[in-house]
Design a protein that fits this description.
By secondary structure, this protein is α/β, with parallel strands linked by helices. Helices cover about 45% and strands about 15% of the residues. Helix 5 packs across helix 6 (about 160-170). The radius of gyration is 18 Å and the shape is globular. GO terms for molecular function: hydrolase activity.
């Protein structure tokens, strides 16, 4: 079993950013998604550790304390980890994929980038966000979580009555897993407020010069396929890869990160 070494670095605003490192080879940073943390990506890191020195970056505001959060903070944090490690390869999942693309536009420190179903909103429906915020204000945390799951549109529960979706999720996600989700609900709200703010701004990714692999799962809903296709038409040195049997959460522990890891290695090892 691979071992992880905990490291820290300082971001531009003085925030201490934690990242955990394993493996050997060229440096690769993994940026996790919303409603999760680096612990959910250790299996993917282990699969990659034979080929790369993998750095799992813990994004800020995992406790929901940063009331003035903006995505540029995460971009500055990622740049700080990149400078501390010298890593020039980048993998971002979901909201972490959005952070990856935004960082590349702002600072361009990476030679190659993979984003798996990045949280880029092109024609989003944001009605759920107000309901989510209201549920949080009333401390109806299970309801807020169900509203989010339905609003994202990745789950069959998206079309279920809300009371039923809330009940099913309450029964399915319990114990330690639920405590983590509950802790991250505030951060999740602020992060998706940023996604909404960036709605339709994807055309700026036309300035990216690094090769970008736009990855996704064939089991994901059509709007994901459409979003990746649109991004491929904007980002100059990009390609789309849809993987059979994979879905939005596939990079995380307990899913199928081994299959994804093979394609990550192939892209980063391929000739420019």
């Amino acid at each position: 079993m691979a071992s992880f070494v905990k490291n820290t670095t300082s971001s531009a605003d003085g925030m201490i950013i934690t990242y955990e490192t394993t493996g050997q080879g060229p440096g690769l940073i993994i940026v996790h998604g919303a409603l999760t943390d680096i612990e959910e990506y250790t299996e993917l890191a282990v699969f990659l550790s034979g080929k790369f020195t993998v750095h799992l970056m813990q994004r800020r505001d995992r406790e929901g304390h940063c009331e003035l959060y903006k995505i540029e903070d995460d971009c500055e944090d990622l740049l700080a980890v990149q400078r501390a490690t010298g890593a020039v390869l980048l993998f971002g999942h979901s909201f972490g994929g959005l952070v990856a693309l935004e960082t590349a536009v702002l600072f361009n420190p990476f030679e190659r980038i993979i984003v798996y179903e990045p949280g880029v909103s092109i024609h989003g429906n944001w009605d759920w966000l107000t309901v989510y915020q209201s549920a949080m204000a009333r401390k109806k945390y299970h309801l807020a979580f169900a509203v989010f799951v339905q609003g994202m549109g990745h789950s069959p529960l998206s079309k279920a009555p809300r009371w039923l979706a809330t009940l099913i999720l309450r029964l399915a996600i319990r114990g330690k897993e639920w405590q983590l989700k509950k802790k991250l609900l505030v951060s999740n709200l602020r992060e998706h407020q940023e996604v909404k703010r960036l709605e339709g701004s994807y055309r700026k990714y036309a300035t990216l010069s690094s090769p970008v692999l736009l990855a996704g799962g064939q089991a994901s809903p059509p709007f994901i396929h459409d979003m990746l296709s649109i991004l491929a038409g904007v980002i100059p040195a990009s390609q789309v890869m849809m993987l059979p049997g994979l879905h939005h959460l596939s990079p995380q522990n307990g899913e199928v990160p081994a299959l994804l890891a093979g394609h990550i290695v192939e892209f980063f090892d391929s000739p420019v």
